[in-house]
């Protein structure tokens, strides 16, 4: 009787070296993180631009409603001020829309495209995993036959098993190599890929704020507002409130 | 001497009768006495005032300072005015009697305005002062100490102490017309003083009625401006027959007006004022809600921080964007939000609250107007009205005059303040932009293309993005080339030969492998072992059953259940490629056919192509082909860019077919294919 070596408790045979597995997991792990970040970045970017547009629209509404108030017909100064404000708001809204369009084109779209590679990657990794399972299974089968007594039928089965194993092992190795080559390249490509988008993003902001500064700067000049500090303004507000309260028709709150 | 009079009709005009002279002398005496009284009482009045202001007020330290202000109001101003007045009075004493009377008249006229200003405030405040006094009386300890202080200074104050003292100015101002009247009565009509004194008397009467009106307005304002927060229960409790009848009466009056039965009291001046008030009110309300919406949107914007997801893209614009965005969010925009809140939002809230008072008064005025009109009607009909109805008239008039007096100023103030707030809003925006640009300065200088003007940058960017997306596509394709693993079904011994035989007759896409043993039951069913390779001829049987397929084993044809078949991927050629890479390998089977190059047909879309092999469509996207059938290629790749499938059109039907089933006429492509390209 052939002595069966003590096999109980042995861990699953490592058919691929630990280092290979570790490398693979590390590279894939990085890409999984990158996938998550890309998704979140894209989503938040979109939400941010939507909120930006909403803000701009509500600014326009401020001046629009003021313009439609009958006070404008009676009070020329009021009308002048509100008209100037309205023009400024509308122009800012147009610039804002341009900015958002730019962001959409140069940041959100590229993000989306980058993200669309991941499903293919994930599928490829799955397939490699499948190949690995098949490889393991067949390897185990071969080893089982190798353990047995070398009779005729056993030898034939062993041979067949080996034949089955070979293509599968080669397939797995090919997949593994392919992915181990491609994954780091893909990961590395993000640097060159994303930098233009962020540069565009910064520039778009600067352009927008420059316009904003000019438009509101001109408007400030036009409305003849002296450069007060915040405390001064607060005092002015307090003063106005006191004047109002001095009237009997105003209730004390 | 009492009965002498003008009984005799004749009188000599040269010398007055002794009786008349006597009465003249009497009048003159009375006048002098009255003048004396005026001056003396003024002296003691002023003395008493000073006593109150300094001694008594000074000693009432146990009362909180706010209370003292309410009690004594503007007594200091009264003292000041009265002091000067007394001085003027005393100066008139130097002149002759007639002159003195005239001067006194003039003095009153001079001081008329000041008296009105000073006393109206004191009088309007008096009721509140009385309330305080009453409150003190409830506290015996306090009352005793107050009383003690007063008695020490003013013994004649008596038990009612504080209220006795506080009413003195009221008594004085109302005394003036009476004193003047007395002087006037005793002044001969032809004296130069007479007209002056007359004017003075009526002037002081006017002062008193102005003070009254002012007081009434203040009372009315106090009563009606408060927007009472009543619970439902309290509101219900307020409803009684009286209030109900008031309301129904008002409603019926309003309806009568609407129906034209009763003329509406048109007050153009008030209506204009009210209209303007409504516009101003609308402006404030709208602006407030618009600013609220703006601030909500700003808040929402601050919620999203995409820059926080940029991890591990070190260096370059990405990092700069990260730090810039953080700066803007945490500092510039936050500061903007806070300033907006303090300098725009909160003033708007105060404005909105201030609108409540006038709004209430206007509404009350309308109510009272309806009452007033009804009372007027009744007056016309009946000729008299009840006390309550008189009161309603007065209330309406008070409200009306109050509003007419103060609404213009109110409207003006609100408009001015609105303008101020809007200007502040503009300045805040400008300063936000300044701040943002300042923070971006350093980042911009570091950008790789900061020196390139914007339109050129756009072009460069577009070009780069195109290139990048091309690169992405290639990555994607590479990943898609990692294909499903080959079927692990082992080939049966000797089946390789059979496989090759099948391959000569059928396209590789037709090859299926049996997954588990099939034992046929019906006449045309086949019995096949697991692992057998077959070629599928039809994916349904003659009765249209899709789960029973017609297959060819290379020797026999028959039906097998479709569920026991799985597509067979021939791996030989790829293996051969691998073999080439991995070196020497056992070659068990057939001599390797020529390693075929992957044939990816780059057929122009309009070329005439022919199907070389028959193909059975397995889904609606695919199209069945017959051998030799001419087809038109629409696209030489599928939607994912995979060149192994082509979109073709045949007889008006469109579908995908394997690209290597097609050949360009006249020369068909040599058969041979490989899975991977």
How would you summarize what this structure contains?
Chain A: Involved in cytokinesis and septation where it has a role in the localization of F-actin. The complex is a heterodimer of chains A (253) and B (677). Chain A is mainly alpha-helical and 253 residues long.
Describe the structure.
- The complex is a heterodimer of chains A (253) and B (677).
- Chain A has 253 residues and is mainly α.
- Chain A has one domain (18-221): Substrate Binding Domain Of Dnak, Chain:A, Domain 2 (Up-down Bundle).
- Helix content of chain A is 84%, strand content 0%.
- Chain A is built from six helices and no strands.
- Chain A has helices at 18-67, 71-74, 76-115, 117-147, 152-222, 230-246.
- Chain A is rod-shaped.
- The mean pLDDT of chain A is 87.
- Chain B is an alpha+beta fold and 677 residues long.
- Chain B has helices at residues 18-59, 65-72, 75-92, 97-138, 140-153, 161-166, 168-185, 193-225, 232-238, 241-258, 268-303, 316-354, 356-382, 387-446, 454-480, 495-505, 572-582; strands spanning 511-514, 533-538, 548-552, 557-561, 565-567, 608-611, 630-635, 645-650, 653-658, 662-664.
- In chain B, strands 4-3-2-1-5 form a five-stranded antiparallel β-sheet, covered by helices on one side.
- In chain B, strand 3 and strand 4 form a beta hairpin.
- The longest helix of chain B is centred in the middle third of the chain and has 60 residues, at 387-446.
- Chain B starts with 17 loop residues before the first helix and ends in a 13-residue tail after the last strand.
- Mean pLDDT of chain B is 79; it is low at 1-13, 572-607 and 666-677.
- Chains A and B meet through helix 1, helix 3, helix 4, helix 5 and helix 6 of A and helix 8, helix 11, helix 12, helix 13 and helix 14 of B.
């Amino acid at each position: 009787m052939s002595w069966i070596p003590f096999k109980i408790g042995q861990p699953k045979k490592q058919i691929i070296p630990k280092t290979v597995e570790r490398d693979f997991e590390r590279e894939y792990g990085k890409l999984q993180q990158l996938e998550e970040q890309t998704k979140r970045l894209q989503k938040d970017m979109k939400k941010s631009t939507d909120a930006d547009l909403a803000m701009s629209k509500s600014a326009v509404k401020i001046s629009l409603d003021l313009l439609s108030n009958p006070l404008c017909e009676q009070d020329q100064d009021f009308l002048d001020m509100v008209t100037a404000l309205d023009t400024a708001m509308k122009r800012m809204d147009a610039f804002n829309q341009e900015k958002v369009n730019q962001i959409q084109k140069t940041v959100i779209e590229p993000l989306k495209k980058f993200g669309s590679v991941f499903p293919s990657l994930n599928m490829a990794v799955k397939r490699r995993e499948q190949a690995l399972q098949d490889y393991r299974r067949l390897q185990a089968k071969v080893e089982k036959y190798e353990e047995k007594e070398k009779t005729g039928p056993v030898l034939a089965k062993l041979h067949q098993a080996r034949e089955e194993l070979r293509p599968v092992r080669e397939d797995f190795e090919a997949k593994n190599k392919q992915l181990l080559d491609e994954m780091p390249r893909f990961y590395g490509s993000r640097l060159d890929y994303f930098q233009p988008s962020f540069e565009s993003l910064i520039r778009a902001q600067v352009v927008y704020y420059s316009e904003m500064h000019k438009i509101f700067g001109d408007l400030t000049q036009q409305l003849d507002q002296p450069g007060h500090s915040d405390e001064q303004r607060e005092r002015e507000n307090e003063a106005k409130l006191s004047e109002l309260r001095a009237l009997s028709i105003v209730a004390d709150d | 001497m009492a009965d002498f009079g003008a009984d005799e009709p004749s009188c000599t005009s040269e010398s007055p009768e002794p009786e008349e002279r006597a009465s003249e002398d009497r009048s003159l005496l009375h006048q002098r006495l009255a003048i004396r009284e005026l001056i003396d009482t003024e002296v003691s009045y002023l003395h008493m005032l000073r006593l109150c202001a300094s001694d008594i007020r000074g000693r009432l330290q146990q009362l909180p300072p706010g209370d003292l202000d309410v009690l004594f109001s503007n007594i200091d101003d009264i003292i000041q005015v009265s002091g000067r007045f007394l001085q003027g009075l005393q100066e008139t004493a130097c002149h002759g009697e007639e002159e003195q009377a005239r001067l006194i008249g003039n003095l009153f006229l001079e001081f008329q305005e000041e008296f009105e200003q000073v006393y109206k405030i004191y009088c309007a405040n008096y009721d509140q002062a009385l309330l305080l006094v009453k409150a003190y009386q409830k506290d015996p300890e306090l009352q005793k100490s107050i009383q003690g202080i007063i008695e020490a200074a003013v013994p004649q104050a008596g038990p009612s102490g504080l209220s006795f003292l506080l009413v003195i100015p009221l008594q004085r101002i109302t005394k003036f017309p009476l004193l003047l009247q007395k002087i006037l009565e005793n002044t001969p009509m032809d004296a130069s003083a007479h007209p002056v004194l007359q004017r003075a008397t009526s002037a002081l009467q006017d002062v008193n009625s102005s003070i009254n009106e002012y007081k009434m307005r203040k009372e009315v304002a106090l009563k009606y401006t408060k927007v009472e927060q009543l619970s439902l229960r309290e509101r219900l409790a307020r409803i009684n027959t009286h209030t109900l009848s008031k309301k129904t009466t008002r409603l019926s009056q309003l309806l009568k007006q609407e129906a034209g039965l009763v003329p509406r009291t048109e007050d153009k001046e008030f209506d204009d004022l009210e209209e303007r008030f409504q516009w101003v009110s609308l402006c404030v309300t709208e602006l407030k809600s618009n600013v609220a919406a703006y601030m909500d949107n700003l808040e929402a914007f601050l919620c999203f921080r995409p820059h926080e997801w940029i991890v591990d893209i070190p260096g370059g614009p990405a990092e700069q964007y990260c730090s810039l965005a953080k700066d803007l969010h945490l500092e510039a925009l936050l500061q903007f939000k806070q300033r907006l809140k303090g300098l725009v939002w909160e003033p708007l809230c105060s404005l909105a609250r201030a609108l409540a008072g006038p709004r209430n008064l206007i509404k009350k005025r309308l109510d009272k107007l309806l009452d007033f009109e009804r009372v007027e009607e009744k007056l016309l009909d009946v000729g008299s009205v009840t006390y309550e109805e008189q009161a309603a008239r007065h209330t309406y008039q008070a409200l009306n005059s109050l509003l007419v007096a103060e609404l213009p100023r109110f409207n003006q103030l609100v408009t001015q303040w609105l303008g101020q707030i809007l200007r502040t809003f503009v300045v805040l925006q400008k300063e936000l932009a300044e701040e943002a640009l300042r923070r971006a300065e350093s980042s911009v200088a570091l950008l790789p293309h900061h020196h390139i003007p914007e339109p050129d940058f756009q072009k460069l960017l577009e070009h780069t993005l195109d290139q990048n997306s091309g690169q992405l596509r290639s990555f994607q394709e590479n990943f898609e080339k990692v294909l499903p693993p080959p079927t692990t079904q082992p080939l049966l011994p000797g089946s390789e030969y059979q496989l090759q035989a099948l391959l000569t007759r059928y396209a590789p896409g037709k090859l299926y492998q049996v997954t588990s043993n099939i034992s046929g039951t019906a006449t045309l069913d086949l019995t096949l072992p697991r692992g057998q390779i077959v070629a599928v001829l039809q994916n349904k049987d003659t009765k249209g059953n899709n789960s029973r397929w017609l297959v060819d084993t290379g020797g026999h044809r028959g039906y097998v259940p479709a569920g026991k078949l799985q597509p067979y991927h021939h791996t030989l050629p790829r293996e051969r490629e691998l073999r080439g890479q991995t070196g020497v390998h056992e070659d068990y089977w057939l001599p390797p056919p020529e390693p075929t190059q992957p044939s990816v047909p780059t057929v122009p879309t309009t070329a005439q192509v022919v199907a070389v092999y028959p193909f059975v469509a397995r889904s609606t996207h695919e199209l069945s082909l017959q051998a030799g059938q001419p087809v038109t290629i629409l696209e030489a790749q599928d939607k994912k860019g995979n060149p192994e499938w082509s979109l073709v059109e045949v007889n008006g039907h469109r579908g995908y077919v394997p690209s290597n089933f097609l050949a360009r006429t006249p020369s068909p492509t040599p058969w041979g294919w490989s899975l991977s390209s």
